[in-house]
Design goal:
The longest helix has 20 residues. It is elongated and about 95 Å long. It has 3 domains: 91 residues, no CATH class; 229 residues, no CATH class; 154 residues, Rossmann fold (3-Layer(aba) Sandwich), CATH 3.40.50. By secondary structure, the chain is an alpha/beta fold. Helix 2 packs across helix 5. It is built from 24 helices and 11 strands.
């Protein structure tokens, strides 16, 4: 019967048949599984689609939905033509045929994003469907739905179990060599803009400033900018710090277009188990490359086929401590008189005015820890800033002193606690390195994911939450503990302030930018 039907094809339908076959985008297994009336006949599925299927609104694969495509391209069905042919003509190489809720991106960008998400180790289609049972498993491409609808709708993209399994595998794997993503001495853009959102978290502004310093020290022409800068006159290369903030706040939304994203580098600061990470995911998946503050996250992007590198910004010698006007802030007035003066990171462990400090937001994990150990900490000179945050700590007069307060208090503290916000042991660079080590405090942390530069037992100390009180007692009350604490403190300060290490770090980020800049688009 198929042979007889083939003879009835018009010349146009014969051309359509050939083009669809050569595109490789007709999914015969999907077509037969979805349209059982065709499966029960003797007709060739592609032949049926070309002759009858498209007129009946049938899909040639999971991704191409004719109604959605025609709503965005009304001319595609002119003169009773097959809209799938229009798609193949105008979007060669794409397998995403509609924009979903990401209407400011081209189909070519979205196709790259979906393909990258499919390879990202944190994403598993079955887990996404388990969390979103309203989706038809047979008719829906889960990666496509996650990117085009799931993220904009606020759905959860990654399951907690999948995140845990993937992080464990990333820690165990040796990973790819960063040298694969470096182009020593290669051409670099004539100008670079490092962007953060002016309404975002002030700690993100600090990371952007540190990145800007590193790029400038690497000899690159670099400017520190925000979302209010001119889009039309933007530098040759844009690096967006914290895309989960930048593209969602205020005028940052104006930058969320495919033309900008595809040529940019994203600097990710978020952890994959958070909704914030998922909010920034589309921009990272469609970007030219990713810089990640977490070693394991950079490896996950590399496994998905994205140029990605882990980068620890260099820390300058200047410290942003409390200023004279800040002393009227309620959180500054409660400091002991000796701790209101400007701290010196070189102050030895034994001579510091506060025993223990902690800065962080409320979480269930932290609540259990502090409730269980409240009596223990009451015996020490402590400064804990622990509250529920509903908005970012921004540059407003209310919040700006708080960012200086964290560094100031750490500069007077013997021990700076790092209690994770949840059960994922991320090495939180800003809290551990910028906030504590750089100000001379000894970091006592719950176990962290391995870090390629900072090592537990040498630059900071790790212990389970249950036994952290025992470690603190040993450090503060025994000669051996105090000697260990001072050695840890000195090791961290030396590593942070080593000029040769900082120069190597700057060279490395320059070579990565050269690699991204010189890599031709596919």
């Amino acid at each position: 019967m198929s042979a007889d039907l083939l003879l009835t094809l018009t010349p146009t339908e014969q051309q359509d048949l050939q083009q669809i076959r050569e595109s490789g985008q007709f999914d015969a297994a999907f077509y037969l599984a979805t349209y059982t009336d065709v499966a029960g006949s003797e007709l060739d599925p592609l032949l049926h689609y070309v002759k009858y299927g498209y007129r009946e609104g049938r899909q040639p694969n999971r991704n191409f939905r004719p109604d959605a495509y025609l709503s965005q391209h009304p001319d595609a069905g002119a003169r009773n033509r097959n809209p799938f042919i229009h798609f193949l003509h105008t979007h060669a190489g794409c397998h995403v045929a509609h924009q979903g809720l990401l209407t400011r991106f081209h189909l070519e960008d979205l196709s790259i994003g979906v393909r990258t998400l499919e390879q990202l180790p944190f994403f598993e289609p079955g887990a996404y469907h388990d969390s979103n049972r309203d989706l038809d498993r047979d008719m829906t491409d889960m990666a496509e739905h996650a990117l085009l609808y799931g993220v904009p709708e606020g759905r959860r993209i990654f399951s907690p179990l999948r995140v845990s399994e993937t992080l464990g595998a990333l820690c165990a794997a040796k990973g790819l060599d960063d040298a694969d993503y470096l182009t020593p001495g290669g051409p670099v853009p004539e100008s670079i803009g490092v962007y953060s959102n002016s309404a975002g978290n002030v700690f993100i502004h600090e990371i952007a400033a540190d990145l800007h310093r590193s790029l400038s020290e690497a000899g690159l022409d670099c400017r520190l900018l925000d979302e209010t800068a001119s889009i039309d006159d933007r530098p040759a290369l844009c690096i967006f710090v914290a895309p989960h903030e930048f593209f969602h706040l205020g005028r940052g939304r104006d930058w969320a277009t495919g033309a900008i994203i595809r040529d940019a580098i994203m600097f990710n600061t978020e952890q994959p188990q958070t909704l914030w990470f998922e909010r920034g995911l589309p921009f990272m998946l469609m970007a030219a490359g990713v810089i990640d503050i977490c070693h394991q996250m950079a490896e996950s992007f590399r496994q998905a086929g994205l140029p990605a590198i882990h980068f620890t910004p260099t820390i300058g010698t200047a410290r942003d401590y409390l200023q004279k006007d800040d002393m009227q802030h309620p959180m500054a007035r409660i400091l002991p008189p000796a701790c209101r003066k400007r701290p010196d990171p070189k102050t030895p462990f034994a001579d510091r005015g506060l025993d223990i400090s902690f800065f962080g937001g409320l979480s269930a994990h932290r609540e259990k820890f502090f409730a269980r150990n409240a009596g223990f900490f009451a015996q020490y000179r402590t400064y804990f800033y622990y509250r529920k945050f509903t908005t970012p700590i921004d540059t407003s007069p209310r919040d700006r002193p708080l960012s200086r307060l964290a560094a100031h208090v750490a500069g007077h503290s013997r021990i700076a606690l790092n209690i994770h916000r949840d059960d994922y042991g991320f090495f939180e660079w800003h809290r551990i390195v910028k906030g504590a080590m750089a100000n001379g405090a000894v970091v006592v942390s719950e176990p962290c994911l391995p870090h390629p530069v900072f090592r537990a037992g040498e630059h900071f100390l790790e212990e389970t939450g249950r036994h952290i009180p025992n470690l603190i007692e040993w450090l503060t009350h025994t000669p051996q503990g105090q000697a260990k604490a001072e050695a840890i403190r000195q090791n961290a300060l030396k590593l942070i302030g080593t000029p040769s290490g900082n120069r190597a770090c700057c060279t490395r980020i320059r070579d990565f930018i050269a690699h991204v800049w010189s890599t031709p688009e596919e």
